[in-house]
Amino acid sequence: MDIKQTSSLQKIANTIRGLSIDAITAAKSGHPGLPLGCAEISAYLYGKALRYNPNNPNWLNRDRFILSAGHGSMLLYSALHLAGYKVSLDDIKNFRQYQAISAGHPEYREMPGVETTTGPLGQGIATAIGMALGQKIAAAKLEVENTDILDAQFYVLAGDGCLMEGISNEACSLAGHLKLDNLVLIYDSNDICLDGPITDCFTEDVAKRYEALGWAVTKIDGHSFDALDNSINEARNRKGKPSLIIAKTTIGKGSSAEGTCDAHGKPLSVEDIQKTKAAFGMPANSFYVPAEVKEYFNSHKTELVKVESDWKNKFKAWQQSNPAQAELANNLITNKSIADIETVLANIEMGDKKATRQLSSSAIQEIAKNIPSILGGSADLSCSDNTFIKGQDFVKSDNYNGQNIKYGVREFAMGAIANGLALHGMFKPFCGTFLTFSDYMRNAIRLAALMKLPVTYQFTHDSIFLGEDGPTHQPVEHVASLRAMPNLTVIRPADANEVKGAWLEAVNSELPVAIILSRHAVTNQATTDMNKTRKGAYVVKEAKDTAIDLCILATGSELGIAMEVATELESNGKSVRVVSFPSFELFEKQENSYKESVLGSNIKKYCSIEALSSMGWHKYIGKDGIAISVDQFGISAPYKNLCEHFGFTVSQIIKRINNAI
Q1: 593 and 485 in one domain?
Q2: What's the pLDDT score for residue 332?
Q3: What pLDDT score does 355 carry?
Q4: Is 320 a member of any domain?
Q5: How many helices (H) and strands (E) would you count in the chain?
Q6: Strand partners of residue 490
Q7: Which residues lie closer than 8 Å to 213 by C-beta, 6 or more apart?
Q8: 376 contact partners, CB below 8 Å, separation of at least 6
Q9: pLDDT for residue 602
């Protein structure tokens, strides 16, 4: 690099430092250590390496930067402001304040240029891997590999905490296996974590670990622009391996807390800010941006706008020369279905006496044929959770043009990678595992819900009724836990019609959807309905009299039991309504008049039947309602023994009801 550009980039780095520490101190909250230590990295990326357009933050072929170490958010916010994104100086000044877009940790959709929500350490790495994988798959499907149509690079900045968290190793293992050479992970290696030096807890040889994972590893001085330039250019041109750049930096560089854990998360004093700025030859002015830095980015922005414009011209020419692929590209971007998906689902012949996981597999096959943006995957369970898309390949390092992703036994990484695939912008992913293992991926599901990403989860083996595998594999509290999560739609379908309805909701939803499915067979009910399933709850059996003795609410396989119980009770003179209740969240979106029509008011008693935790049901059945549930861990035994042990036979349920009404 020439001396003039190096000088300009150093001024940018120092400006990032100044803005960051001013904002953090004004907020009296934040993490100055990373912005002070990684300012050169950020200045180099936004001032030279990255291809982006601040006027069009969602340009399809942009390079993307993900700050996995999200606590250092002011590093990113300062860079975005200087680079010309719609991030004002007032946004910087209002860091961490009420209704400010400059939140404590970067939040997707809140600030332009923030590619994903980060904060929980390690997830930024895994999500970026999903984005990079999405780019590889898209390029393969559109037959533009090794061209400049889809050749974006994905850059991640991570710290010691990200590399300690297990999700990063899960995801990086898969990235190495899949040879994602469009991915560059920059490791802010400063030898300090929150509680002190990393020698107290983290002494592994990171370079050797990543080499063993199939990565190319380079060690550099993270404050040297020449070292950054050389290593990132090498990474950009590298084929067949993702790149790890171990950048040795000094946390809190220039401050009195330099090189100590005190620099990590404690705002600097006003006096320390002045000393720190003086150490970098900067004036003491708060929120100061030198004219030279403004001029540099004005010029750089002009260059970047031209880069996008030139790409658009190439893309348009490619579209005209390749009409079939161009149509596919449009279908991927818009999540368009080739045929009317409601009609497709309605016409599937699924059969009877099957597990809902098997019924769901039938739906998946037709959905995958008709919606090109659908990508499936499983944590080494596709043959058991029935997520495999038949007739389609697994995505492989020598052939990315598959529709199935074999995540291996990496549930947490799977969840975060699926988020990255959704964020890429050309795919609508679904992934599967056993319901009990949703706990392993819960934090990734939470971020999908927080970001409102359209990821679908197929969770099978949905209750104690899976039998002999025992309590470690028998979910009890999991559905209640998932129902507690904002923005996540949980659907537990009872039979073929409701499985169709669950998938119809999932493919149309802009929010994450969890479909909860059985291992054991269910009987199709004559009165279930695909479209009514999307209302969350509906009457499947009306009472014989207007004065109703009992209203039974049931989900999943327990709807069949509920229908048998209702028939038996009515033969003994009771008036019973049965409501199928596949989704609390969808039901809560309905008008009050509809809710009233389903749950009624002239009803003496309510009863829920679900072979899971009773938590949440009393909102609908009342504090005196009868909850036929499982509020303890399961046992290892055959299905029939479990039904009897936990009171889920028709005679046992009727006895409990008769004792209560």
Answers
A1: no
A2: 97
A3: 97
A4: no
A5: 28, 20
A6: 514
A7: 169, 172, 173, 175, 176
A8: 364, 368, 382, 387, 388, 389, 403, 404, 405, 429, 430, 431, 432
A9: 86
Nearest to 238 by CA among 186, 183, 172, 173: 183
**Between the CA of residue 454 and those of 66, 154, 412, 430, 516, what are the distances in Å?**
20, 21, 17, 9, 16
Dist. CA 275–CA 296, nearest whole Å: 26
Report the alpha-carbon distance of residue 253 to residue 395 in Å, rounded. 43
Residues 128 and 386: their CA atoms lie apart, in Å, by 27
- Shared domain check, 239 and 112: yes
Q: What is the CATH number of the domain that holds 124?
A: 3.40.50.970
Q: With beta carbons less than 8 A apart as the criterion, state whether 45 and 65 touch.
A: yes
Question: Is 233 among the domain residues?
Answer: yes
Same-domain check for residues 376 and 491: yes
- Which residue among 256, 285, 305 closes a domain? 305
Encode pLDDT of 390-432 as tens digits: 999 999 999 999 999 999 999 999 999 999 999 999 999 999 9
Q: Give the predicted TM-score (pTM) of the model.
A: 0.98
Do residue 357 and residue 403 come from a single domain? yes
Where the chain has pLDDT below 50, the residues are none
CB 144 within 8 A of CB 319: no
Which letter, b or e, does each residue of 567-588 get, where b requires 16 or more Cβ atoms within 10 Å of its Cβ?
ebbbeeebbbbbbbbbbbbbbe
Q: Same structural domain for residues 367 and 477? A: yes
Backbone angles phi, psi at 131, to 5 degrees: -65, -45
Q: Tokens representing 134? A: 């999405």
Do residue 541 and residue 512 come from a single domain? no
Q: What is the pLDDT of residue 298?
A: 98
Domain shared by 452 and 568, yes or no: no
Domain membership of residue 200 as a residue range: 3-305
Contact 491, 582 (CB under 8 A): yes
Report residue 64 CA to chain centroid gap.
17
Q: Which two tokens stand for residue 578?
A: 């049965």
Collapsing DSSP states into helix, strand and coil, what is residue 34? helix
pLDDT of residue 661: 83
Which positions are catalytic? 411
Q: What pLDDT is recorded for position 315?
A: 98
Give the C-alpha separation, 648 to 641, whole Å: 10
Question: What number of other Cβ atoms are within 10 A of residue 632's Cβ?
Answer: 11
Looking at the fold, whether 509 and 558 belong to one and the same domain comes out as no
